[in-house]
Specification:
single chain, 256 residues, alpha/beta, 5-stranded mixed β-sheet, two-stranded antiparallel ribbon, 9 strands, elongated
């Protein structure tokens, strides 16, 4: 989506999406990346391309690096298991990469980088990938995403340096309630739960003011580290959880 937006605004970009395990690259490329692009082409229009047309439009110095990188990929330098993908995004280029490959980490320049499951990647390797944001466009960016890690790992360090936005659900308290911080103290059970439909047996509430959270998407992001170096967000399954999701969470939590 970022590559498409950049291209439509007349500033094509190189977008890299990195995963920590080779098999995850293969599964993502075949199961999600390709189908999503196919659907976008149906909506926006466009065609498949290996990236060479867009490379010709790059500045000379960057163009030389990109061509060398693609020659190495075509010659097998990536390794068959890497499933390296170049996709034409209406002028931009999309790349799915394995974070464990030295060729991928030190190869073509990127203007936007997305690194998924950062907790599973060595911290110094994450730093190397991040440095590849080259400023091909004036809107270079890096996005780190991951499920929860442990103190000191790559995602924990980046969270600590961010603005640490937490979701506060609206309730009677002036500052709202962060349900994840009080779980399972925010999970209620109806008195007659056994006679109710599955999705009506449990509910979420604020343990301080006892307000039931009925509008699950009503609330706000609050910075807990306003002086952070960049925006950071901590989403969780309780944000916007509909009754069906609350029921599933309750069953999972109460399972012996």
């Amino acid at each position: 989506i970022c590559g498409l937006r950049d291209a439509l605004e007349g500033r094509p970009s190189w977008v890299g999406f990195y995963l920590p395990v080779q098999q995850m690259v293969i599964d993502f490329a075949k199961g999600r990346f390709d189908p999503i692009l196919h659907k976008m082409r149906e909506i926006v229009g466009g065609h498949d391309d290996d990236g060479r047309k867009s490379i010709e439009n790059l500045p000379p110095a960057i163009r030389a690096r990109a061509k060398a990188f693609m020659r190495e990929a075509a010659g097998g330098g990536m390794g068959g298991e890497d499933a390296y993908k170049f996709k034409h995004l209406w002028g931009s280029i999309g790349v799915v990469g394995w974070a464990g490959s030295d060729v991928r980490v030190g190869g073509c320049p990127l203007s936007r980088v997305f690194i998924d499951e950062v907790r599973l990647i060595e911290s110094d390797r994450v730093d190397r990938i991040q440095k590849r944001v080259s400023g091909l466009t004036s809107r270079g960016s890096v996005v780190w995403t991951s499920t929860a890690g442990v103190p000191g790992d790559a995602i924990a360090v980046r969270w600590e340096e961010s603005t640490q936005n937490r979701w506060h659900h609206d309730c009677a308290c002036s500052d709202g309630v962060i349900l994840a911080d009080v779980w399972p103290g925010c999970l209620g059970t109806r008195p007659n739960a056994a006679s109710l439909p599955r999705n009506e047996r449990h509910y979420l509430y604020c343990p301080r003011c006892a307000t039931e959270i009925t509008e699950h998407t009503k609330g706000r992001w609050v910075e807990h580290n306003p002086g952070g170096s960049y925006p950071g967000y901590n989403p969780n399954q309780l944000i916007g959880a509909p009754p069906k999701k609350v029921a599933q969470l309750a069953e999972d939590w109460n399972r012996p």
